[in-house]
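Today's session is about reading a structure prediction critically. Students often jump straight to the picture, but the first step is always the sequence itself: look for stretches that repeat, for charged clusters, for runs of hydrophobic residues. Only then move on to the predicted structure, which in these notes is written as discrete structure tokens rather than atom positions. Here is the chain we will use throughout the hour.
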Amino acid sequence: MSRPYEPSWWKGAIAGAVGGLAGSWTMEQAQAMTSRASDDGLDGAQHATGRPAEWSARTQDQVSGDEPATVQAAEAILQRPLDANERAVAGPVMHYLFGMGAGALYGALAETRSATTRGFGTGYGMAVWATADQFGVSALGLARWPTDRPERAEAYSTISHLVFGATLEAVRRTVRAVL
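Below is the predicted structure for this chain, in token form.
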């Protein structure tokens, strides 16, 4: 049984950021597992390295031959192209930072708005999917529009954002109970 606590937006934000980090990792694992389980190389798509592509939260545009949205975002922030070693680090860092930020917002909102956690975080996962994955990265020119992506990739993305939201909520609750 969890102990009652006084609402605190900053404690909620910390718990949410930890949940967002865990959710980002879990969503990526879910995408990779789904891709492998379906024996899906996304119709022969390949990384720039020539290896078969798996769909991943960090590599949304790999089927188009473009750099992943996370790498493009890092280059935009740093205002310079990244070399191969930097890209290998920047993509995951941007992915996890975004997940932590989205989680921190969720955690802060969950402190005072109980509706935020309805659906055990899956509603919020779908909100992140709709705003960031379906619209945001495309509107910023960092990824193709959803209508131009493979349908299977969109299904993986949807499932993984549900996983993100549920993991975010499970970890947020656990962390918040001890803060």
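Discussion point for the tutorial: The chain has one domain: 20-178.
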